[in-house]
């Protein structure tokens, strides 16, 4: 793996050197953060060379509710190599590889699970751009759009959605504060698992997903919104419909966001209800599912380098009429809660954190045939996140 990464980095640097047609002004030194390369060599990095960062989150975790022998341990939660740059003024590239994730290729797109993003983009005009390759699906929502290293615990939706897919998207800034995105991706990364599919299920010949996303900024960026609609063609007669409506408010030292997410799934894509059915003697993939998520986080800077926050989630999983589960109705309700403090010693790029996380999962009477018990795990974490500027 290491020789491959070294070779790719060498090629990217060479392409930048050859293809960059015009010199770029050196950024203001007051705003420039030195990379490890600059600190060690004392050579100023040329602005047109690749930007290389190692995005990390590491912590000491203590499980406050588990009866397992290993209740506390140090852990590298997140480790991702991020390489971005410009080949010319109009051509750019992105490569993001999750280093502590499997490199096994998916069966449909033949792309390793560890690669989150890999592709080439084109600035067609100053307001219009195109990107092709593996990319972040434009589902919307501020938790979903956040840097994963900075999300200490995702919602059920964020934990289960397949968010990195092969495809193409078009981004159009119709005004300086309003952006429209159109995206077409694979509907999934792997081929269907025939052993768990319903008897009447027929795999789609062209399993694709289509998303339109609107991002807006208002009141001098005090209010920002994310709205999206997605349709995923999973089989010849079964689709996924997904809506997101989200907003964030920034005023002085206070900011907050609220995400509302809703999906109707004729064949279970999130997989939460299918996990419930997995307790049966013969597990099967659920049909006619419905999921709802409400997520909110509040931040307050009590000092310039000190932030306190609280986060909550409310989520439900239900079966609709026609489901292959025993009955239609709500099977599961989940309540998530977090609170913590973050310290920024130098830059926003580095933070230390102390976070308490809890989750209450309640199963309704409809889930009783599967012999499931309510859960309430709780964790305490002390650690740091740092996007290390390598080059």
Structural description of this entry:
- The chain has five helices and 16 strands.
- The protein has helices spanning 2-19, 36-41, 142-145, 156-160, 272-277, and strands at residues 51-63, 72-86, 91-98, 115-125, 128-136, 164-175, 178-186, 208-218, 223-233, 239-251, 254-267, 287-303, 306-319, 329-343, 350-363, 378-389.
- The model is unreliable at 1-30 (pLDDT under 50).
- A hairpin with an 8-residue loop joins β1 and β2 (72-86).
- The protein has a 16-stranded antiparallel barrel with strand order 1-2-3-4-5-6-7-8-9-10-11-12-13-14-15-16.
- By secondary structure, the chain is mainly beta.
- The chain is globular.
What layout of secondary structure does this protein have?
Layout (H helix, E strand, L loop, with lengths): L1 H18 L16 H6 L9 E13 L8 E15 L4 E8 L16 E11 L2 E9 L5 H4 L10 H5 L3 E12 L2 E9 L21 E11 L4 E11 L5 E13 L2 E14 L4 H6 L9 E17 L2 E14 L9 E15 L6 E14 L14 E12 L2
Antiparallel strand pairs: 1-2, 1-16, 2-3, 3-4, 4-5, 5-6, 6-7, 7-8, 8-9, 9-10, 10-11, 11-12, 12-13, 13-14, 14-15, 15-16
């Amino acid at each position: 793996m290491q020789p491959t990464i070294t070779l790719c980095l060498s090629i990217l640097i060479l392409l930048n050197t050859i293809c960059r047609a015009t010199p770029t002004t050196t950024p203001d030194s007051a705003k420039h953060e030195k990379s490890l390369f600059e600190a060690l060599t004392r050579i100023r990095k040329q602005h047109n060379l690749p930007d290389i960062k190692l995005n990390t989150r590491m912590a000491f975790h203590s499980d406050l509710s588990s009866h397992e022998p290993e209740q506390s341990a140090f852990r590298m939660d997140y480790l991702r190599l991020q390489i971005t740059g410009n080949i010319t003024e109009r051509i750019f590239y992105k490569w993001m590889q999750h280093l502590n994730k499997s490199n096994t290729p998916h069966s449909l797109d033949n792309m390793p699970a560890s690669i989150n993003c890999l592709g080439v983009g084109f600035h067609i005009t100053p307001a219009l751009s195109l990107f092709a390759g593996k990319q972040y699906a434009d589902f919307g929502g501020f938790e979903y759009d956040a840097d994963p290293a900075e999300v200490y615990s995702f919602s059920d939706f964020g934990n289960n959605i397949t968010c990195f897919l092969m495809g193409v998207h078009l981004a159009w800034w119709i005004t300086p504060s309003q952006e429209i995105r159109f995206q077409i991706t694979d509907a999934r990364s792997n081929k269907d698992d025939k052993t768990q599919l319903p008897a009447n299920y027929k795999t789609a010949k062209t399993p694709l997903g289509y998303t339109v996303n609107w991002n807006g900024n208002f009141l001098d960026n005090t209010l920002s919104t994310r709205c999206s609609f997605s349709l995923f063609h999973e089989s010849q007669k079964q689709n996924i419909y997904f809506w997101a409506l989200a907003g964030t408010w920034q005023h002085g030292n206070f900011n907050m966001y609220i995400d509302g997410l809703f999906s109707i799934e004729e064949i279970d894509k999130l997989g939460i209800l299918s996990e419930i059915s997995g307790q049966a003697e013969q597990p099967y993939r659920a049909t006619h599912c419905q999921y709802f998520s409400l997520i909110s986080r509040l931040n307050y800077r009590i000092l310039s380098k000190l932030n306190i926050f609280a986060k909550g989630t409310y989520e439900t999983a239900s079966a609709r009429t026609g489901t292959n589960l025993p009955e239609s109705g709500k099977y599961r309700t989940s309540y998530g809660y977090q609170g913590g403090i973050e310290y920024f010693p130098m830059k926003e790029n580095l933070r230390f954190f102390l976070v308490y996380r809890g989750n209450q999962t309640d199963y309704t009477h409809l889930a009783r045939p599967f012999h499931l018990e309510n859960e309430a795990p709780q964790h305490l974490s002390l650690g740091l996140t740092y996007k290390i500027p390598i080059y």
